[in-house]
Amino acid sequence: MPALPEESVDLIFADPPYFLSNGGITCHAGRMVRVDKGDWDRSRGADANHEFNRAWLAACQRVLKPNGTIWVSGTRHVIYSVGFAMQQLGFKLLNDITWVKPNPPPNLSCRYFTHATETILWAAKSDRSRHKFNYRLMRQLNGGRQMKSVWTIPPPEPWEKRFGKHPTQKPVALLERILLAASDEGDLVLDPFLGSGTTAVAALRLSRMVWAIEQSGDCADLAQRRIVAELVQVDLFVCCTKGLDLVPRPVDRSRSRTRHGMTSRPLTKLMQQERMFYFVGTDEREVIFSVTARTMEEAWERFRNSPKAGKDIFCVIKTETEIYLAVGK
Ligand SMILES: C[S@@+](CC[C@H](N)C(=O)[O-])C[C@H]1O[C@@H](n2cnc3c(N)ncnc32)[C@H](O)[C@@H]1O
Questions:
Q1: Tens digits of residue pLDDT in 20-44
Q2: Cα of 283 to ligand 1 centre, how many Å?
Q3: For a 10 Å CB count at each end of the chain, is N or C smaller?
Q4: Ligand 1 centroid to 194 CA: how many Å?
């Protein structure tokens, strides 16, 4: 953070450690498991936790533009300390959003209400800030009525976890709502606790620029894979299959003349690997169903369980996509 220029960022989203991985139990996928999100989430005691929150919030305040805003999400373990630190530092508290999670895991001890919400504090840099709020857009997204500070947004969808899981991954829809509410295209967004990269994915989708910080190499790798997949879209269009010769006559097209004579090429790192199966309908002669799967059998199984199951299939096209990031000479 100290390397970032002062007053350069329009919006910050921070999802700091919750300090709740301390040996408690929870319910995950119907099983009783220990709460252990990683070393980064262990409590160091109330005073040390508060000092940590104060320190990173002060660093964020320095890089925020005078009219910039910060959004911090957290549970009861951390959010009161964050709110108090914001007051101590002179932020201007704007809203406390309640994010409601439909279908939360049950409370196994049966001694508390089921935890079903997180709080998101929204604050401006100081009392003098004239903060940005895209009021009309929010009202439009809410069917023409003022949007309330209670947001019901489901947890991340399976497609958001296709490159791997992070224990506290936020849904892209939540970050999109935040960015749409308080930033515009071209604005600079910062996430000091990037995790799996959700803020970066949402920012790229909405044409914002993004800076991010993450201490764990594994999380940074996962975030990088998600970001690359956002930047590179591989689509298949079947233009004409009518005259397609289906006699099996395999041709190896993997060699191309452009490769000959190439003595060195940049070092690359595999960022994304995907096997897609496209089902072309007999009547339509176009792709009527597509799916990622490991094998042809699995793809057919998924097709048979899809709404297109009764359709006659003319052919199935399998594509393998690998995206490599150039990492050196
Ligand atoms: C609550 S998670 C963020 C999850 C993220 N919002 C997402 O959607 O994936 C917090 C992340 O902050 C990282 N972290 C913890 N302490 C940090 C520190 N001092 N500096 C940078 N990153 C840190 C952890 O490795 C973890 O991935």
A1: 776 666 667 667 777 776 777 788 8
A2: 50
A3: C
A4: 5
